[in-house]
Amino acid sequence: MNGAESLVRTLVASGVEVCFANPGTSEMHFVAALDTVPGMRAVLCLFEGVATGAADGYARMAGRPAATLLHLGPGFANGIANLHNARKARVPIVNVVGDHATTHQRFDAPLTADVAAMVRPVSHWVESCRDARSVAAAAARAVQAAREAPGRIASLILPADTAWSPAAGPSPRLPVHAPAPVSDAAVARAVAALRAGRTALLLRAEALRGDGLAAAGRIAAATGARLVCDTFAPRIERGAGRVRVERLPYRPEPAIAMLSGTETLILVGTQAPIAFFGYPDQPSELTPPGCTPLVLAHPHEDGAAALEAVADALGAVAPAPVAPFRIPERPPAGRLDPGSLMRIVGRHLPDDAIVSDESITGGFQHYAVLDTAAPHDFLSLAGGAIGDGLPVATGAAVACPDRKVVVLQADGSAMYTLQALWTQARERLDVVTIVYANRAYKVLMDELRIVGAAEGSGKAQALFDLADPVLDWVRLAEGMGVEAVRVDETGAFEDALASAVAARGPRLIEAVV
Amino acid sequence: MNGAESLVRTLVASGVEVCFANPGTSEMHFVAALDTVPGMRAVLCLFEGVATGAADGYARMAGRPAATLLHLGPGFANGIANLHNARKARVPIVNVVGDHATTHQRFDAPLTADVAAMVRPVSHWVESCRDARSVAAAAARAVQAAREAPGRIASLILPADTAWSPAAGPSPRLPVHAPAPVSDAAVARAVAALRAGRTALLLRAEALRGDGLAAAGRIAAATGARLVCDTFAPRIERGAGRVRVERLPYRPEPAIAMLSGTETLILVGTQAPIAFFGYPDQPSELTPPGCTPLVLAHPHEDGAAALEAVADALGAVAPAPVAPFRIPERPPAGRLDPGSLMRIVGRHLPDDAIVSDESITGGFQHYAVLDTAAPHDFLSLAGGAIGDGLPVATGAAVACPDRKVVVLQADGSAMYTLQALWTQARERLDVVTIVYANRAYKVLMDELRIVGAAEGSGKAQALFDLADPVLDWVRLAEGMGVEAVRVDETGAFEDALASAVAARGPRLIEAVV
């Protein structure tokens, strides 16, 4: 058995069953090992940012890590932006990064780079093997590190000769600690604050799903506490039958206004709210004056259990009222706009769908429409690095083959990782992508106005214009094997969406808004 | 004047006239400054890898740096692979990397990352400003650092508040040292070796152009020395009327065989040859036994002047015979293949064209066909990180608006930075892209065979197959506003190429090979 086979066997034994791959020459023996070892699904991605974003989406839905297989420093670098997002989403990922053979590294070959230096800024755990016999144990440690609560990025750098040289055998799966329990004192402080009133719970991660969310609902029902979630939470269970949670607004002023009057902001799996960007003369911290943040559960702690403990201590046994199922009214016939688009999505979202949202300006203001749509998981751009909507959807579809995935996707951001559409077609993934074709970096046009530079020679405005030439998303999708249609009227969009939802397999709708 | 305006004015004063930009919110004031300051052309790229690759192509042809404008750590990271290539090409680039406002950095906002740590591995020079008044001087130093011979990557990290806060004014251009002269001793050693015979000159950079190449030719004519260039030289002046230079083969065995019998390998602007990858039981160093490498000029030294000094010392005044102009014979009618494709390119390459080559397996073996084509500049994938063919062509076309740019582009690699086509359409750049559609990562299929894993369950082979679904390059190009056609016969390809060469503006030909 060579090092490569020992790696793949160890990953499979450790519960890693999917590898999103974009390999090169230095990874050839790892690729060859996929033929020998059963139990690992290899999903080819035509760009590394697709592979890392798919691993993020997979982990958000599967709750366990996928592997990526990446080629040397530059190949890893192409995946950094979506690893940044995954890191902020706090999901587990195991990156296998090939490097030149140890004997080859001292020469300045064209692809020689400082792989470890590129890997470190987005990895919680990095190990670089120097011989084949250490690969299996390192791989087991990588999976263990990735699975440590709340989920971490582990990167294993494997020189080519650690793949092709003889190794002993695979390593067994290593134990993973459960998330740390929250202290009784933290629970007691939260209970006291809730009894005092004027509280809000700011929720993220497990607190936005299942038992955690139900417990938060009981607390809200018993005490009148508001339930709020981070602006970009990695995953929320929403829709009919679920406890409704308000989303913190994106811009500082409305965020502060929303929290005004709250005396204690109880944090569950998140930090006190921070503005997305700093602006002249605006605060970075969004906790309003007179409001005190209070940590119930840090991200590495068991936020769901903490909420249940608080609810029990309060005697809050009555479940919260949940969102009703309400089909949004059909918008009037006419030009499609982001508002009518979301209403139509709400009309046709299938039960138990997964929504991957990177709609930026287009979707944000109409987010609440889906509060009463069919129950679904809603995945947001957790790290702000654009280009995760399509890859996250791709990975989520691999993790959940029986659920429909719907992507709400801004056009500018879609261009960063459009290669994901090819993988969707290749793997026959059940993904419907709705491209908000506003043909601009609309959010930046807004920002430019905010900084007071909307006038001028037009050179600045031109940097946010995507209309010359127009991006033709039907051709782009078809070019990668995905059936697509363009619509600009409400009726046509509803027909296209109904048809795409009824079918299986990848579809794209270019919605001109 | 704010920091942003002082930056742009300083860049323009320092000779930086083009900025390949993909900005975000934190760069908004820099964008706004473009409206105020004349003299800077802003070219929008829809992905950062396009911006950095275009800056590389611009610098290779213009001989001076362009700026890039990139958004925070993840945006910079998207540009790393092509900065890696630019670094190996040893060209000057000035990266302007926005960061969160200094007041905002201590909070863990979604886009917070260790920008400097991401920037360092591919930058020769890094500076991070902390206040607006230091921006102008730092920008002048950045340009100076980038222009230091032979060309370096300078990255200036600018927190948003250094852009919006008041600054004094622009900084003047700083002096740039000429490349270091080669010592008389180095010249004398090379002369002695050449007089002894059985020498080869291994050339790169300035030694492959103009006076440097002419001097190398005179040396070869006088001494019988062979002229060889690096496998992937950043830029070569080739074709009819130029001194012919042999290209070092890609694989170790033929490279060593080519140099066998050479007693002294004189290095001009490059290092002793190294294999692209390490392989089991194959050497990394390609200098054959019995051959001694001898440095005439290090990369930072003036290789062209050194060659002229050597030629003068040898009394080598007679110019070398140059390549004749020879129109390749028209290939027989029938299915197109890489060989017939290159012959047809040789028939239609216009005078003074720029060829951006990322054809990988498709073009490599037919490279010599263009030795006798019309004179042209030939640009190669200097750093091996795939995805530079289209961006480099884009930047070269911006640098040389009066020259036709022809891209020889493998299909797999093209997918990494296909967004470059949009910028070509937007800027009406005169680029003809020929996609070698072999619908596979062909080089990796070869590599897999070499490591002995071509058989097996087929999972491995499937990772190199791009035929399910087929990438439709006509639709992909048209989706970004570039006129395109698909051909699979020699006659149709010749018609398509002749028509594309005769027209102005971007065209793409999907050549099924």
User: What is the CATH C-level name of the largest domain in chain A?
Assistant: Alpha Beta
What is the number of independent domains of chain A?
A: 3
Roughly what fraction of the amino acids of chain A lie in strands?
15-25%
Under the CATH scheme, which architecture of the largest domain in chain A would be assigned?
3-Layer(aba) Sandwich
Under CATH, the homologous superfamily of the largest domain in chain A reads Thiamin diphosphate (ThDP)-binding fold, Pyr/PP domains
Q: Could you name the key traits of this structure?
A:
18 strands, Rossmann fold, 513 residues, alpha/beta, six-stranded parallel beta sheet
Structural write-up:
The structure is a homodimer of 513-residue chains. In chain A, helix 10 runs parallel beside helix 12. In chain A, 37% of the residues lie in helices and 18% in strands. The model of chain A has no long low-confidence stretch (mean pLDDT 96). The first copy, chain A, folds into 3 domains: 3-164, Rossmann fold (3-Layer(aba) Sandwich); 184-314, Rossmann fold (3-Layer(aba) Sandwich), CATH 3.40.50; 338-512, Rossmann fold, CATH 3.40.50.970. Chain A has helices at residues 3-13, 28-36, 48-62, 72-78, 80-89, 115-119, 135-147, 160-164, 184-196, 210-223, 252-259, 303-314, 338-348, 361-364, 389-399, 411-414, 420-426, 442-450, 459-462, 473-479, 490-502; strands at 18-22, 41-44, 67-71, 93-99, 125-128, 153-159, 199-203, 226-229, 236-238, 246-247, 264-268, 292-297, 353-358, 376-379, 405-410, 431-437, 483-487, 507-512. Chain A is globular, with a radius of gyration of 24 Å. Chain A starts with a helix and ends with a strand. Chain A has 513 residues and is an alpha/beta fold. The longest helix of chain A is centred in the first third of the chain and has 15 residues, at 48-62. In chain A, the strands form 3 sheets. In chain A, strands 9-14-13-15-16-18-17 form a 7-stranded mixed β-sheet, sandwiched between helices. A 6-stranded parallel β-sheet of chain A has the order 2-1-3-4-6-5, sandwiched between helices. At the A-B interface, helix 2, helix 4, helix 5, helix 8 and helix 17 of A face helix 2, helix 4, helix 5, helix 8 and helix 17 of B. Chains A, B: Residues 1-106 form the Thiamine pyrophosphate enzyme N-terminal TPP-binding domain. Chains A, B: Residues 372-510 form the Thiamine pyrophosphate enzyme TPP-binding domain. Chains A, B: It comes from Rhodoplanes tepidamans (Rhodoplanes cryptolactis).
